[in-house]
Specification:
alpha/beta; four-stranded antiparallel β-sheet; globular; Rossmann fold; about 260 residues
Length: about 260
């Protein structure tokens, strides 16, 4: 009988090479005590190497979907597979970047060590980071223009720098699927340009990137496809005018309702 520990790297099976990065069929997600489903009947397929936007207002279900893909929320019904396997089978291949406000930035850890935690899915129990792990963390910091801030406590960073540190952590993991929750929300222009350039590089490397965003202006320039969510359901798809028209109509109706 073969025995292995989680994340040890010794007993991993290789995923099917032709499998989509993500395949969702009839996915339903409910929060405990919730009156309605946070996601209701989602069908979606994302091919490997795609850069896809999740678009919708707050509460539409974008963060819920990303957390379900990352294995942080269970699905109540339907099927959700990542690289052809159940969620959680290849955790080292999936990197999740939460919204900046979900982290405790007062935690006493340096920027460099925060980024190093992206290597933990590759380490296994009772194993310490190697020189190669530290090198990958430093390369990610350099890529996000943060190497000179590596020994700062994470709370000393600006909002844009914190966002870049989180993305550096995801890069250090060397994942094949990156789930980014509002990576460009409330950041300065310099951070926006750096992050956008990194996302373009990731696609050239064949990585799959799913980005939750409110920004409609650069959908066609920055993404291959888009999924528009409202109230937990898909209302439009694509980066063309149809999806944007549906989303803008919802926003106009929402603003009118709030103004009454």
């Amino acid at each position: 009988m073969r025995f292995c520990l989680p994340y040890s790297g010794r007993c991993r099976e290789q995923p099917p090479t032709a499998a989509p990065a993500l395949a969702a069929q009839g996915v339903v997600v409910r929060y405990p005590g919730g009156a309605r489903a946070a996601l209701d009947g989602l069908d979606w397929v994302v091919p490997p190497g795609a850069r896809v936007a999740l678009v919708g207002p707050n509460g539409a279900g974008k963060s819920t979907l990303l957390k379900a893909i990352a294995g942080l929320l269970p699905i109540a019904a339907g099927s959700l597979r990542v690289f052809g396997a159940p969620v959680g089978a290849f955790r080292h291949r999936v990197a999740y970047l939460a919204q900046r406000g979900e982290l405790d930035w007062n935690f006493p850890i340096s920027v460099r060590r925060l980024v190093l935690t992206g290597r933990y899915p590759h380490l296994g129990w009772l194993r310490w980071p190697t020189r190669a792990d530290w090198r990958l963390a430093d390369e990610a910091l350099a890529r996000l223009h943060l190497l000179d801030l590596a020994e700062r406590q994470i709370g000393e960073l600006s909002g844009g720098q914190q966002q870049r540190a989180l993305l550096a952590r995801a890069l250090a993991q060397e994942a094949d699927l990156l789930l980014l929750d509002e990576p460009l929300n409330a950041v300065d222009a310099a951070t926006r340009e750096v992050v956008s350039a990194v996302l373009r590089d990731l696609q050239r490397q064949g990585k799959t990137v799913i980005v939750a965003t409110h920004d409609l202006d650069r959908l066609q320039a920055d993404f291959d496809d888009a999924l528009f969510l409202m109230d937990g359901q898909v209302v439009a798809r694509g980066v063309g005018a149809v999806g944007e028209r549906v989303h803008r109509a919802w926003l106009d109706n929402h603003r009118a309702a709030v103004a009454v």
